[in-house]
Amino acid sequence: MKFYITTPLYYVNAEPHIGHTYTTVAADCLARFYRMKDYDVFFLTGTDEHGQKIYETAEKEGISPVELTDRVSSIFKEMWKKINISYDRFIRTTEKEHEEVVKKVFKKLLDKGELYKGEYKGFYCVHCESYVNVEEAKNPVCPDCNRPVKEISEPSYFFKLSLYQKQLEELIEKSDIVKPDFRKNEILNFIKKGLIDISVTRKNVVWGIESPTEEKYTIYVWFDALLNYLSGIGYLYDDQTFQKYWPPDVQLIGKDIMRFHYIVWPAIIFALNLPQPKKIFAHGWWISGKEKISKSKGNIISPEYYIKEYGVDPFRFFLLREVPFGLDGEFSEENFKKRYNSDLVNDFGNLLNRSLNLIEKKWNGFLPEDEIDESIINLSEEVYKKYSEKMENLSFSEGIEEIWKLMIYLNKYLDEKAPWREDNENAKKTMVSVFYGIRNLLILLRPFIPETCEKMAEMLGLERKEIDKFENLKVKYTGRIKIGKREIIFYRKK
Ligand code: MSP
What we know:
By secondary structure, this protein is of the alpha/beta class. The protein has a domain at 335-474: Isoleucyl-tRNA Synthetase, Domain 1, CATH 1.10.730.10. It is 47% helix and 15% strand. The protein has 17 helices and 17 strands. The protein has helices at 18-36, 52-61, 65-82, 96-111, 165-174, 184-192, 221-226, 228-231, 239-245, 258-271, 303-310, 312-322, 333-363, 374-392, 396-417, 427-445, 450-460; strands spanning 2-11, 40-48, 89-92, 115-125, 130-132, 150-159, 178-179, 198-199, 201-202, 218-219, 250-254, 280-283, 286-288, 291-292, 329-330, 366-367, 481-482. The strands form five sheets. The chain has a six-stranded parallel beta sheet, sandwiched between helices. Helix 2 crosses helix 3, helix 5 (165-174) runs antiparallel to helix 6 (184-192) and helix 13 runs antiparallel to helix 16 (427-445). The structure holds 5'-O-[(L-methionyl)-sulphamoyl]adenosine (MSP).
């Protein structure tokens, strides 16, 4: 079984902030989850590097677009490395391979009559890199971001989007492409108002892919960028890889770019006669002081601080635990700290420390041998089943809630059974069972907090491969286990 997952390509006019990190961590968590289920996973992410916005940003900084795109795309890569993003390919839209695919697709659509030449008259928002309808022609501002827009009038190629109105309505009504479900109506209402053909070239933008036409244009940045989902897995140059992974199983986007992904993107796919993505999930925004966190709002929260102060995994954990994935959430350090202290320090860290201390003191660092309590075996199985369903629906926070059922049970079990008491005849069985339960927590939590789980496995004296696959949940370890070196992983924060 294969699993192809993508994130949007991030613009290189800003350095990675919490918003970009959110989508990427979610994609990483899911990619890891499917790898642990033994799927053949392809995880694609990267940077969107053409267009007027990037050109103007470079100009303002007094550098060339190439210098800007090289610098910022490396910053994205470094950040993803720091937070353990396990992508299979990081694509840049300025790569030769991608550029060739965009030209070929353009040519293909031109030859099929899906593109035609006309004249674009209207408004353009550089910030959104989007052609827009404005309400007031006197003082034209973008309906999405409220910035002044430019009036343009130029010859242009158009894509026959209007042709796909009915097909798109049907796709959205009948398939699972739009997720979460509550977004469906919004998109359908928009389509039902009528779709117009969209311009796919720019006459006066220099920083873009050149159109394969006699008279030269640059290809519209969104048309270029969307095609990365095809070029990223070899469309038109590596058929074997393409056939293996197409169509995408999950595409993650923020709710700010739904129209491009639910309307323009599937229409291009129809025009190319390819199967549609199975699911495109639009998540909510992290907000701060009632506004979306973004460079332009000046309320950026950088991941760096949280990584330094709390660690990579607590940061990953918080992003996916705190807010249901489709909804908006307020990012604050207060909430972060609360979550960190209660879930990671109290529940998880303490459970591990108490258990390892006991094994060390009572049994000289060797796990005693006995049978595992049925209740923990059964609960593990039940939790995995529900957790798995939640993860498949991208309900990350609910997935973690399922894991916490086992976490809470184990803490309580340890309290009640009190294996540290001298006269306790069941101490061995209790310890063996709790150990088994913790091992299962490490497997279940691994997609969220991989580094922590690997470190903890070492502390338990287990090999990494023992927590590699969900299949291992059933495995009862055999032989004498000597626990590893102990250390405190989560320190309480005041
Ligand atoms: N380049 C386009 C996407 C092209 S995809 C073919 C773009 N880039 S972007 O840099 O603006 O990044 C947009 C994505 O970043 C959003 O869709 C979302 O996934 C993420 N986020 C940026 N700010 C965000 C928040 N404040 N909160 C959550 N995610 C947001 O649009």
